[in-house]
Structures
1.
Amino acid sequence: MSGANVAVLASPAEALEAAQRLAPGLAARAARHDADGEFPSQDFAELRDAGLLGLFVPRRLGGPGASFSDYAAVALELGRAAGPTALVYNMHASVTGALASTPDALIQALGGSNRALQERDRLLAAARDGSLFAVAMSERGVGARLSKLKTTYTREGEGFVLRGEKSFVSGAGHVDAYLVAARAAARDEPVVSYFFVPAGDGVRVEPSWDSLGMRATASHDVTFDVGLPLDALLGGVEGLALLLAQVMPQWLVASYAAVYVGVATAALEEAARQATARGLGRLPALRARLGRADAQIAAARLCVLDAARAVDASPGTPATNRAVWRAKLLAGDVAATVASSMLEAIGASASRRGNALERLYRDARCGALQPATSDVCADYLGLAALGADPSAGADEARW
Amino acid sequence: MSGANVAVLASPAEALEAAQRLAPGLAARAARHDADGEFPSQDFAELRDAGLLGLFVPRRLGGPGASFSDYAAVALELGRAAGPTALVYNMHASVTGALASTPDALIQALGGSNRALQERDRLLAAARDGSLFAVAMSERGVGARLSKLKTTYTREGEGFVLRGEKSFVSGAGHVDAYLVAARAAARDEPVVSYFFVPAGDGVRVEPSWDSLGMRATASHDVTFDVGLPLDALLGGVEGLALLLAQVMPQWLVASYAAVYVGVATAALEEAARQATARGLGRLPALRARLGRADAQIAAARLCVLDAARAVDASPGTPATNRAVWRAKLLAGDVAATVASSMLEAIGASASRRGNALERLYRDARCGALQPATSDVCADYLGLAALGADPSAGADEARW
Amino acid sequence: MSGANVAVLASPAEALEAAQRLAPGLAARAARHDADGEFPSQDFAELRDAGLLGLFVPRRLGGPGASFSDYAAVALELGRAAGPTALVYNMHASVTGALASTPDALIQALGGSNRALQERDRLLAAARDGSLFAVAMSERGVGARLSKLKTTYTREGEGFVLRGEKSFVSGAGHVDAYLVAARAAARDEPVVSYFFVPAGDGVRVEPSWDSLGMRATASHDVTFDVGLPLDALLGGVEGLALLLAQVMPQWLVASYAAVYVGVATAALEEAARQATARGLGRLPALRARLGRADAQIAAARLCVLDAARAVDASPGTPATNRAVWRAKLLAGDVAATVASSMLEAIGASASRRGNALERLYRDARCGALQPATSDVCADYLGLAALGADPSAGADEARW
Amino acid sequence: MSGANVAVLASPAEALEAAQRLAPGLAARAARHDADGEFPSQDFAELRDAGLLGLFVPRRLGGPGASFSDYAAVALELGRAAGPTALVYNMHASVTGALASTPDALIQALGGSNRALQERDRLLAAARDGSLFAVAMSERGVGARLSKLKTTYTREGEGFVLRGEKSFVSGAGHVDAYLVAARAAARDEPVVSYFFVPAGDGVRVEPSWDSLGMRATASHDVTFDVGLPLDALLGGVEGLALLLAQVMPQWLVASYAAVYVGVATAALEEAARQATARGLGRLPALRARLGRADAQIAAARLCVLDAARAVDASPGTPATNRAVWRAKLLAGDVAATVASSMLEAIGASASRRGNALERLYRDARCGALQPATSDVCADYLGLAALGADPSAGADEARW
């Protein structure tokens, strides 16, 4: 994908302005994308042209060098406009953000070569120029538990062969490349690595996505049966996946928390709009619902921003990771609770398709279901509150 | 509609058996009806043939003479199998149940003639023989508040002319007649009467129903512009509507409570089935969700049955009416809460269309939104707890 | 204790009337008992004189032969008047109810002799004549898990020696005899038996009870170091305790559920009274709180009565036991939720000591904490919903 | 009160360190103060000696010149150690904070003289030197609604006479002066002014405070019948009270929010400690309770700090005031919810007096009851969400 029409963002502030500028257009198209379960191609054309696919590209590569906090601000804005678009954007952000924030020293310490660093920079430059990336991690019957993946890779000749079926691949069929998690076929213990797989031969998208909410994400099943060059191995190091889940949980656990707070915000604003239009503001029960929703959203939003600040200031520490899991828990729960209450505030007319609350309600319910689910988050935080190591102490493997 | 193929139910027990016998078929078709928003014609053919449209027909007219408790048992069963079918059935049951349970003496005391009693019996006999009735009460911008209706009737020649637009008319286009609430055009104070309007000329169905849940109810908008004979006036008495809302609130407020408890039951059972199939029963958080759902459903079910018993034993008393409003409040809240929790118990896979939980979740959310909404119920019950007359004491007119 | 002044109750209905007659007196003394943490001796003198200690005594022994449903109705009434009195009464009822409802055939099948049956009748006759019994089961650090008890008994000479320290012994120091659970000292596997231990030598009460709520129950620690005749062994059979927990869970799990529904009812009624006195009924948020409390209490009450009916109709079946656990879960949760909300309805003045809501709030919080706690109940019910055997399937031993 | 032993705090950071240093001592004494309902005199001797009574004294008067954010950090710390001490401290902070943050220009614009400014500085200097202030605003039957106050003042001779009975006067009998709200006796419309009334003649404390929680605050009734000099009128301006409630709602609405978040934090930490000591960390239901509590507390804490930052950055704006009301709502609700859940996590032993959770549970319940109650906050925020002016739009006067 050429970068010909892609704007250069000079700063994170410009990125936020761009998101705010595009938001009304995204919001206007959201109902149609939901109804048809259609990928928001126009949204992504606009995001790309505005330079927003390069949000995490560092300044040395010509990007705005956004922090996690910068990203969270953008994601809140996009989520408020169009949840599914923001979710797909989030997956791209997770890939580019993880690439941009993995220290060179870490890659080198793990045995990654300079060539791996160059490959990483090549990917970031592609994002800057408008390439869109997706993540292929989950599998049916396995969920997001990396240690249980059935997709495998084997070393063959001058490269790898990767085979398996992935599910919930947001953006499938609309991206330039996939970050795929796979385990080494030859090993007994779970060695899980990441590979960059370009769209094209050996990547077959099954148009299976048809869901309650977030219907425009094209989170289809994807079958991979593909040969890859050595450079396709992320960081040039095997076994990176479980390590990244521990030290950068934000990308697996909470990067989309901001999206769901955005969705909840949209639901509150929409309910207030409809209540005003219909003269329902005089009803005390409605006011109580709106007031409590307002406080819950504000709290979840502050938790998301707090986690983002912690990720920026001291990534990977136990305190930061707790903040990350909290943000996920609260964003998922608050979105579902608020959207449901807003439906009750407005009444039966809000359940008609075409009423924006009907769509926001379905979108909002999905947050707590995405891994890590709210129950898993609560267990993690409970272990941490007990002073235990929540990465290790669970009864079930988390990843 | 001829009664040629319609079975004669000798007792309420036989009716319940028939419902149980038909339930698997209803359940098997529910997903398709939901997907297409298609009226469950086959379901109603089976219900009719089994004699279930005559559930409330008294023994003296050859029916099983079911009580409200008998109806609740049937509605729980149907709601567990197919919520939308049970909702449409509920509207028919409300009409026939109200007809069957209005004492002759009350109609006579209000000035109704013997001819009105004969007309009532004619309608019940038609139900016995397989006629299906709908209710046309709500209007856009008015909701279910009878005192604010814009549909009017005027006396003209040897009959009435009735004109107006109704919304949320479940079963529209698929029934033999509509019970329509309308206010006297010539009067300043709200005199609201009920009319029986046969399907056909002067009744235009707008296929507008497209909703979050309960998608198969065909609750379309219907425009009436129709001349009616004198006999079409229910009970032969004007002004009956507000009176019935007071003395038989069960038909407006709580007859569908049983349906939503049925839907909640289906959600719990479906979640247990999926959890077992996927080996998730070992997860304590899932067990806690199922256990709490089980208790909530049992409680709501007992409240529905308690209200039904009260309606049968002493209809229209303040204590009975409180039980009725409680049943509505609990059924609506429990259905939404349980279905949402079951989705969380199973996780992201439950949000796929085609997974029964996805549909049940949408169906379950609609209960608390139907009038009287949960907030309205809570206010009613609060007034009653304070010793006030909840029919009179609200800040807003309830009907 | 002589039965000289003890009334003979001819029927359960008379028992309920007696409870209703005594209730105002109990309620009037409740505040003082709470303030001083004083055992309600006057309450029990009145209950005894009215014949209520003999509620479960069968007709063949001159008692009213109450069912569990009869008991639940009495306990609701007493709990509404004075929670702690009702709780102590509940322990006595558990002992006498279990005695009365254990079939002769079961005792015989387990190897119990006729002498054991005679001894049981002697105890029931004592209750009829005014004896009050307590239960000594829980131990510090063990809770109510029978299989972990540290109190032991050994066979010595023509009897047993029983030694150990019990906690939460409601009525300690005010009863005529204690039903004590102890394990056989000589056995590796947990053989847990029940013994009747008369108050007196070898029974030392530590006045340790000083609690958040239910302060008048005298639930002190009690140290037993006592020799007992052979007849003291309940049913004449060792190992009865775990068996009874399985087949009569009502006595361990749910007999006090009715008490807590009574407390919740008192809280709602008291809040309505204060709201009326202060003219707060016009506040919509208060009305909503009262209305939702009313519905929750009604639901919990119906679950308690439903469980009681099931116990009477088919004791010990899986369906009955589920109803029992549900009743416990809902009663405990509803009491705490309602009392807390009533405090918010009335505001700061309700938190003054001397305001009845302050006391009811503390009393109400204790229900879910008593074994089986709400979390344990939810797990039990979750297992049952999954079709598993909830008596066996828990991760932790329940008893 | 002489400032002889009072430390000089050079900065807010030093103040926070002092609070952290004193916290263990406060915590160690908290149980005794609660049991006896005894004012924590030793706590206040230590707070005074550490200079913490002068927290809000500006630098030009030799104080650390703390911001609202600085105060919130201190109050969180104190509330975590001893809720009642933190609450009394909060009242003092409200007085001194309001004094310190009222702009000279505002006082002058309202007609306040230079003499009023000098008097204000004199009071701040007294706080710096160790004087402790209380607030006497609420009245029985009136609550905190300023417009309904029955305490009056009249101009007499060279001063005022102030008469009335106040309730909930935290610190009564232990402070050097009271800030008293009273209305002008001669006026029909409510002109409510503030007066500084020194302890001593004309101030009679009724030792009436005996409450569910926060028992050590000595929030007694106080009767005022006292002559005052002209300087006693705060700001030298009549009618300031309602104005301050609008432009500085933080002092009435949310300054104690931080205290309750501190109490909730203490409850979580205490539950984790007890769970660890008793080996309960293996219980998934306990971990879930701790985990959700952790997230809720973090969210409420962030809302409190966010409101504080807003108050510092742009006091009195609509956005700031919303943040203030949100903080109050969330802190009160979260404290009650968390403490109740922690009791359930630990079980019956946590309900024993002497177990810190028992005390924390009672303390925590009081937050949502203090004005503005949670229901009032929800209504305020609901109006704001609707775009209405929440200061004006309520059905009931808020102040």
2.
Amino acid sequence: MKFSLSHIPDIRFGADEIDNLAGHAASLGAERAAIVMDSFLAASGLAARVQGMLAAEGITSEVYSDFAGEPKLKHLREATAVASGADLVIGIGGGSALDIAKIVACTAASGEDAMHYALAANPLPKNALKKIMIPTTAGTGSETSATNIFAGPEGKKLWIWGAETKADLVILDPALTVSLPASLTAWCGMDAFIHAFEASTNRNAHAAGKVFGHEAMRIIAANLAEAVGNPSNLDARGKVLLGSCYAGVAIDNCGTAIAHNISHAMAGLAPIHHGLATALGFEVSLPWLAQADTADLNAAAAVLGLTRASEIPDFVTRLMDACGIRRAIPAAFNSFTVADLANEMRAPENQPMRRSTIRDVNDADLDTFATAIMTMQKEA
Amino acid sequence: MKFSLSHIPDIRFGADEIDNLAGHAASLGAERAAIVMDSFLAASGLAARVQGMLAAEGITSEVYSDFAGEPKLKHLREATAVASGADLVIGIGGGSALDIAKIVACTAASGEDAMHYALAANPLPKNALKKIMIPTTAGTGSETSATNIFAGPEGKKLWIWGAETKADLVILDPALTVSLPASLTAWCGMDAFIHAFEASTNRNAHAAGKVFGHEAMRIIAANLAEAVGNPSNLDARGKVLLGSCYAGVAIDNCGTAIAHNISHAMAGLAPIHHGLATALGFEVSLPWLAQADTADLNAAAAVLGLTRASEIPDFVTRLMDACGIRRAIPAAFNSFTVADLANEMRAPENQPMRRSTIRDVNDADLDTFATAIMTMQKEA
């Protein structure tokens, strides 16, 4: 046994824990904060509320919320300008807001452009601004990971990776997640479940990662359908949020596998929600994966209350049904063929997820998965 | 549900992982390191080996190893002088070496005496030296905790507590633990098991702490007797070491309970190994504690493969038997009475552990535990 567990930030969990944000910011020594927040959250009054709390503690702040969907280089540049001169970056929102905030804490500190750090072109600065991350969706796990995704100048997906981008403090406040629509709760929650599952069963899985991955699987599987069906159930919301955070720790250490290969390949063809794409990719590849019947797959089965790995696919199908997930892809996929998708699955940037899969993935397997996805019902 | 999880350092686990120490030190930016190491380890050649590795990476170093047993103020002052001008402190050894190293990383940075920080008299400096902690016993969990114990000028036990003393990096190398005598392996391992158990079942127990506490209980219970009986079994050694580290996370967040009240009270009377005292205190109080029959106690039972809390006392007695732990106290206790021990249990500094116990501990309960301890066989 040999492994590396990357550090885990301070975590504060509780409904309305955001009310203690200013105190946490002060204890990090903050005097001037940049807030990166999803635009609909900012418009809901949360930006004003947060700025008011900070001001009462003597901390000045500026808000950047002029983005939607996946972060683009332009957003990183604009947010860096807003964060210039700040000593703390606060990210509030989904994975996009958090990824922008985590990158900007580095670029604002060094004055370098985000492209300077993309794809590990240069080492990240050691003096990044302090970072508080507050996820309002339970899915990406960005609050506990060192990975940050954005679209480069030509629209190509790029990443900035490094411990320097990790949060100093994570606030998990289930009350911030109750307004998320049911379909997004389901898609994001499945994404988190799959993070936990893939990190616990792929070629990089290890003992410490599994502690987090198993706990995440256990609590998400037990609470996701309730969080979808009864959006105001703060207990269920909180458990899914906590599970997503643990799953973030699991992927931060052990990465993902074939479902994320399929998901990223789909995103390469046409816009689709990452959580939905991942859930669809997971369901179509899982019966094949479960045949590997490894010790880790059987351990995952036991965590889910099953007796063997071969029972996992049915379990996941029931979970997705209970969460009301329609197996359908956007109409935009009508313009593409099975071969187009299989090609994306073979693209160089998607090979790490293919290679980390516990079963060897040959080209015929990819064709099978691509066929299953592309023959799915299309949204009107 | 509401909780706070304190940050967890980077962890590197593996046999001979210490061989990568210099690289880790360099990646923390170190140029000049102070090494705090148990004297018998230093004499074994480990000090020279570590200094050689560091020198090969261009890092100069000095060793402080002039201490044995529990740290005294004198040791902290001497180690601070050695660490003056260093940018990294490396602690290698049992809890004493690690506690000294963690405190000295603060006092060497600020130039203040350790007494300046004792019992939270003043805030710790924000610019502590970088810290790498390498436990060579599996017990205290000091490598992942913010608590540090030493004897003050009058011999009284004092503590320095704060996130500023926590490690940046922990190296868990089971190969460093194989030379530990069987009795110490058993006593330290039981201490770690009890950390995990008390943190998971006391009044401060919470969901995130239990993730670590439960995993620690599981792997220590499954591997401790083997680590004691077959000292060179690196797999069992490693699992107990990892369990002790997780148990450190659990107490760092949720603290201990009545077994540690008894243990600290015993140490107040006469010298006794902390792990042994804690194991004895645990066994005599556990049947009483298990009667509380709480959800957390039953969850702990399930983790141990039992069906109910009332089975835990027998399980622990069998575990202690399997580890060859003699139920006997040092002859020095002959000078004291049951009332003396009960008095120590009522001392102000031991009340936090009494109050955190999930069952109310009345004075008659303390008398019962004190009687059970003091009527035990005495070592010749």
